[in-house]
Write a sequence for this structure.
């Protein structure tokens, strides 16, 4: 359920609505989304209905997670105030319709970047905020220690995601059989697995670590080592408004660049005096790159000051010191052996 501060969004006035699975309606003029957001006074951000570490409300309705932090960063870049954002909880089935219809300005909801979503649905992904891959969770008592032992198994999963096609591809490639037990809501799929209706539960590996925490007895379950797909998760916007797309994309890039350049939430203002041309350009001391986005010179300062750099976001929400305990892995900076890399601000 939406907590305090969450609102049920409405389509942007005058914008045609697309049906689910069909291309988005004709684009708004460049700058229309930013103008609408400013007139409204906040960013409407689509998030999950509850996934620990990514977008999850507590019992007081306060949202946290790496996807939530990104929503705050966009609000800070636009308004200079990370609180000017409201969250629209969306399940896997409804998330794309909500973005197409204008109910949300940006979808920051553990969503995999695929060709069909980037083309036929009328969306553009702003980048990758988390490199993931689909995996499996099983009960330790089953004796299963590898996905190769799942021949003939019943697998619980959620519909409206990439997982069902990934399952078919994996089992076909391994010449194994399986039965899928699909559910519209993730909570239903997880409950069915926990009650023993299926042998394994599958989703993105990050989601497995998160969902394991809410099972009746988490220690009785284990995530198998195999990763069967590429799942680059990232925020996305409607096609047709390049300025808004640039704002969302470069906010993400600024958070990644900030980690590489040593700019943090605590030193961002002091770093404005840095002799580094890269740092000075990013923080608005040199040049005016915010102008090209329709934002202030301090857009990146405000975003980084609100949520920290990418590394701070990762460690605070899903890192090894959190209940999820996920190491950086592929999500480390490129110079540290990971895939996180952002174009320079220049």
């Amino acid at each position: 359920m939406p907590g305090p501060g969450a609102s049920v969004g409405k389509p942007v006035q005058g914008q045609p609505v697309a049906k689910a699975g069909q291309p988005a309606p004709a684009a708004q003029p460049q700058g229309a989304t930013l103008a609408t957001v400013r007139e409204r006074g906040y960013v409407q951000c689509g998030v999950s209905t509850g996934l620990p570490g990514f977008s999850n409300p507590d019992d007081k309705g306060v949202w946290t997670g790496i996807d939530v932090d990104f929503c705050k960063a966009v609000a800070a870049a636009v308004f200079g105030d990370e609180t000017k954002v409201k969250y629209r909880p969306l399940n896997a089935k409804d998330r794309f319709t909500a973005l197409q219809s204008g109910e949300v300005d940006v979808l920051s909801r553990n969503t995999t970047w695929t060709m069909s979503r980037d083309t036929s649905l009328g969306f553009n992904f702003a980048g990758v905020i988390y490199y993931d891959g689909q995996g499996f969770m099983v009960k330790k008592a089953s004796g299963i220690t590898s996905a190769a032992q799942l021949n003939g198994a019943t697998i619980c999963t959620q519909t409206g995601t990439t997982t069902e096609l990934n399952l078919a591809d994996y089992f076909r490639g391994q010449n194994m059989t399986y039965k899928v037990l699909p559910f519209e809501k993730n909570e239903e799929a997880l409950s069915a697995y926990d009650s023993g209706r299926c042998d394994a539960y599958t989703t993105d590996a990050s989601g497995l670590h998160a969902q394991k925490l809410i099972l009746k007895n988490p220690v009785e379950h284990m995530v198998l080592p195999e990763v069967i797909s590429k799942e680059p998760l990232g925020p996305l916007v409607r096609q047709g408004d390049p300025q808004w797309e640039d704002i969302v994309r470069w906010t993400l890039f600024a958070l990644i660049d900030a980690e590489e350049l040593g700019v943090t939430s605590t030193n961002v203002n002091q770093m404005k005096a840095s002799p580094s041309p890269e740092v000075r350009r990013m923080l608005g001391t040199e040049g005016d790159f915010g102008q090209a986005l329709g934002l202030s010179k301090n857009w990146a300062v405000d975003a980084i000051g609100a949520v920290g750099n990418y590394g701070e976001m990762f460690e605070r929400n899903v890192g090894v010191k959190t209940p999820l305990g996920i190491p950086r892995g592929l999500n480390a900076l490129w110079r540290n052996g990971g895939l996180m890399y952002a174009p320079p601000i220049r």
About this structure: Residues 133-230 form a domain with the D-Maltodextrin-Binding Protein; domain 2 fold (CATH 3.40.190.10). Residues 1-27 have pLDDT under 50 and may be disordered. The radius of gyration is 20 Å.
